[in-house]
Write a structure and sequence with these properties.
It is a single chain. This protein is of the alpha+beta class and about 600 residues long. Helix 1 packs antiparallel against helix 4 and helix 4 packs antiparallel against helix 5. The longest helix has 17 residues.
Length: about 600
């Protein structure tokens, strides 16, 4: 790859005007200066460029006759060739870095992404001796941050954890019931404060050892502390193994939602022997799940099917997740499109595809930082901002995935709640009442939410409220220093399923909502949660949790913005494609019902 970079550097320096195929006069000293090396080394580099067919060199004969260098290939063509070679080797990050360094003023980046799109989707590849392996390759635009169940904040990490590990129970959304997973049976006492789980026989971790009760005890105990998943075990008083395949859990308080806790990816069961002894375990974890860990780099994550999975082998043989730069999303295909329009489906006309629009179970919103001094500490100021946001115009102007104005967390609430008001006149009165002194409020955000934050910044500015947008990435936005500096954080929440996801918003260590609540409101919220968990009837729990949301809305601690949509195309020849509660497809269920030609694997 170094040869390509040297070619591009020399081309940019000496042939940008003449172009490929036209000799340019140049000296060895000039070449050495351009490559930051000695004249002796430049001769070796030049010989390599000649031998590999990059350039032609005619040495000058006699005094006053300068040497001539001919570049044999176009600049952009050679840049794309280099990027494609890196991608074929799985080095996507290096490919984009190369394009970023040498592709300025060209269309190479867009051309490369279009080429890369054609290599995503459902394909037949070669895995060693397996010449017809079913491989699913998908692009994503945010990184997989962790594979450790106790530190999950983002849905992409949660989904990958679900592929490698299993939980004691599963929750059937359609039936509204719990289903066995690693535990085949369970019981509880009359108060809902003691739960007993019986494990399946013959379930093996990917490294070969059989699951035991000791793994369950370890997996739950390791969650204690200041971790994202610590709130799940906050009420656990004691967890103990009763023999090899029975686990008894005693709670300090009744919790009728506890079985639902155990369905969360954060409560995945891990092998105690490997996790205890291997400091690097979480960079190459092993679980009992439908896929085994294969590889994980900064830009590529690979899984292979677990042939001995206790619920049945996946139809796919492998999955590759490629992390693309966030700024390529504008001219890239989504993973849904690529699954349906990839090589396995490219021969199908678009008229055959079936499209389904669905509403994400969540919303975009801004939460005010009540632990920091500033205008946002005033209820009148917060209410004023609420009235200044014309959500309908936000949807029209920003467009894309924005669908409905939001008055609460869940899309179905928009029917029961009052329409979201837009009242600049009343807002101006509230701003005066708040004593706002003109200082700029700092709006923090990250990733694709920045466009919404910029829109909000403009709207507030026109109303006389100065705003500064501070954008980070998925890691930096969680840094304590950044969170302490912002007055409000704009982001999006997607609820996995039910009450547990809502409770997580308030109870999870490090969750943006929890981090922004003042101590008094946080204590009140935790009291309401404990009371709700003690309710056996779901409708009673729902009323208790709704009380928390109602107070947040009435006191304007949360600026609800919009509910969002997703549009999915289904090719009838690709089966098992259904979105789970995290907005991802279940890899285990995907399959193709027609034979496809074998394609060479890039990895």
């Amino acid at each position: 790859m170094l040869t390509y970079e040297r070619y591009l550097m020399l081309y940019a320096r000496f042939a940008s005007e003449a172009g490929a195929g036209h000799p340019v006069e140049v000296t060895l000293d000039q070449l050495a200066e351009a490559l930051f090396c000695s004249p002796r080394n430049v001769k070796l580099i030049l010989r390599k460029l000649i031998d590999e067919g990059f350039v032609d060199w005619q040495a000058g004969r006699g005094r006053g006759n300068r040497s001539q260098l001919t570049f044999l290939h176009g600049y952009e063509a050679k840049l794309l060739e280099a990027a494609r070679q890196l991608a074929a080797a799985g080095e996507y990050k290096q490919a984009f870095e190369l394009l970023g360094e040498h592709g300025g003023g060209t269309g190479a980046r867009e051309t490369f992404v279009a080429w890369l799109n054609g290599h995503f989707g459902y394909r037949k590849v070669r895995f060693g001796e397996n010449e017809g392996a079913d491989m699913l390759s998908l692009p994503v635009y945010r990184p997989i941050v962790t594979l450790d169940p106790r530190n999950l904040y983002y849905s992409i990490s949660s989904h990958m954890v679900k592929q490698i590990f299993d939980t004691l129970l599963l929750y059937d959304r359609e039936m509204g019931k719990f289903a066995p997973s690693l535990a085949h049976a369970w019981t509880h006492d009359e108060r809902g404060s003691e739960w007993t789980f019986h494990l399946r026989k013959g379930v093996h971790f990917h490294h070969g050892r059989e699951l035991s009760a000791a793994d369950v005890v370890y997996s739950l105990e390791r969650l204690r502390g200041d971790y994202a998943a610590g709130w799940f075990v906050r009420s656990i008083d004691r967890v103990e193994a009763v023999g090899q395949r029975t686990v008894r859990i005693a709670l300090a308080k009744p919790n009728w939602l506890f079985p639902r806790f155990l369905c969360s990816p954060a409560m995945s069961i891990v092998p105690h022997d490997l996790a205890e002894q291997d400091d690097d375990f979480w960079s190459h974890p092993a679980g009992t799940g439908p896929f085994r860990f294969e590889a994980w780099t900064a830009d590529r994550f690979e899984l292979r099917a677990n042939p001995g999975y206790f619920k049945g082998r996946a139809h796919l043989d492998g999955v590759a997740i490629v992390t693309m730069p966030a700024d390529t999303i504008a001219f890239s295909k989504s993973w849904e499109q690529l699954l349906l329009k990839g090589e396995a489906a490219s021969a199908r006309p678009e008229s055959d595809w079936e499209g389904v629009e669905s509403v994400c179970n969540g919303c975009s919103m801004l939460t005010w930082n009540m632990r920091k001094d500033g205008p946002q500490r005033s209820a009148a100021f917060r209410q004023a901002v609420h009235l200044l946001v014309d959500r309908g115009r936000l949807i029209r102007e920003v467009g894309e995935d924005h669908l409905y104005p939001a008055a609460g967390f869940h899309p179905e609430e928009r029917i029961a709640l009052e329409p979201v008001p837009f009242d600049p006149g009343r807002a101006a009165e509230l701003v005066r009442d708040s004593g706002y002194d003109g200082r700029a409020i700092v709006i923090g955000t990250y990733g694709l939410h920045e466009r919404d934050a910029r829109w909000l910044q403009r709207e507030l500015g026109e109303a006389g409220i100065a705003a500064e947008v501070r954008a980070g990435d998925h890691d930096s936005i969680r840094e304590r220093g950044m969170l302490d500096e912002i007055d409000g954080l704009l982001y999006c929440v997607v609820f996995e399923e039910d009450d547990v996801s809502l409770i997580e918003l308030y109870a999870q260590n490090g969750n943006f909502m929890r981090e922004n609540l003042d101590e008094d409101l946080l204590a009140w919220t935790e009291e309401r949660i404990d009371a709700a968990l003690g309710c056996r009837r779901p409708e009673d729990r729902a009323r208790g949790l709704a009380e928390i949301e109602r107070r947040l809305r009435e006191e304007a601690h949360v600026l609800f913005l919009t509910h969002k949509k997703r549009y999915t195309f289904h090719n009838p020849h690709i089966k098992g494609v259904g979105l789970n509660s995290l907005g991802w497809i279940e890899f285990k269920d995907v399959w193709l019902d027609e034979d496809e030609p074998v394609a060479e694997s890039a990895g």
